[in-house]
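QA checklist item 7 of 12: single-chain prediction sanity check.
[x] sequence parsed
[x] length recorded as 308
[x] structure emitted
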Amino acid sequence: METTHLYRTMADLADQGTPFVLATVIESVGSTPRKAGSKMIVMADGRTVDTVGGGKVEAQVIADSVEALKRGVSEVKEYDLRPTGEHALGMVCGGHVKVFLEVHVPSNTLLIIGAGHIGQKLCPMAKALEFRVIVLDARAEYANADRFPLADGIVVGHPKDVAELVAIDDRTHIVIVTHGHMHDKDALRSVAGAGAGYVGMIGSRGKVKTVLSELMEEGVSAEVLAKVKAPIGLDLGGHTPGEVSLSILAQVVAERHGKGGSAGPAALSVAQATAEATVPSAGQPAPVDAAPQAKRTAAVSSEAGLDR
C-alpha cells in the first residue's frame, strides 16, 4: 500500500473516533519478512491495513497491538525468528525484528446538543481543553461553521435522532442545552442508554423532574436516568451564557477525573419518588429531596429565562 494511502486511512480513523495502533518496523536484522519502515494499522478487533510481513511475526504483532490498545500505552516489542529464546516465535529463519506499537486513541468528545448561546460559548472553551467538539441542532441557521468555526463537526438534525446521527461511546460527554424542554427530552431519550461517559441536561429542578418523570413513564429505566447530571453544571454562582458554560465544562472535567461525585441529584430524587410512594398518605411526611444542596448554575440560568 502507498504511504499516502496509509496516512489517509489513519486520518479517516481519527476523524471517525476509531482507536488504532500503528505498528512500524524500526529495526530488522537477518532474514525477516519486512524491513525497517514497514507499517501496518491494527484496530481493536484485530483488523489490519497493510502488512509487516505476514506469518507468525505479523500474528504476534497484531496480538500485541490489540493488548497495547486496551492498555492505551505505546511500546516497542522485539521478535526473534528462532526456535528458542526470550523473544522467540518458534521459527528457524534466524532474523530479529523490533516493532514500535504506536497507540492512537480518539480525543474525548464533547457533544453539544443545542446551538444557542450556551453552546456557542461552550465550544471554544472545550477546544481550549483539547476536546473534540461536535454540535447538533435541527436549525441550520444556528448549526453552521459561521457560528461554530472551531467545531470538529456540525450536524443538522433533530435531537431525537442524535444517537443515530453521532457515534457515542464512553469517551463522549453529552451536554443537552437545546432551545426547548421538549427537545431536551427528545435528546435525553435518545442518548440516556447509549453508553456515554457523561450526560447532562440544562433546566430548572422543576423542569428536570418533569422531564425525567415523563421518560420513566415511557419506559426509560430509573437506573439509566439516575446517571444523568441534571440540572447540569457546578454551582459557580454565575448567570451569563459564558459563566453557565464554564460551570458545565468544569463538571465535565471533574467527571473525567473521577471528582464529579455520584449520579445526578435531581435524577436520583425522581427515581426514588417513582420507586416509592410519590404521594404521601395521611400522617406520613412528604418525600425529602435527595440532594437539596445541589443547586446548579445552569438551573438558575434556565429559571431566569436565559436563551440557550
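[x] summary fact logged: Residues 109-303 form a domain with the Rossmann fold fold (CATH 3.40.50.720).
[ ] second reviewer sign-off
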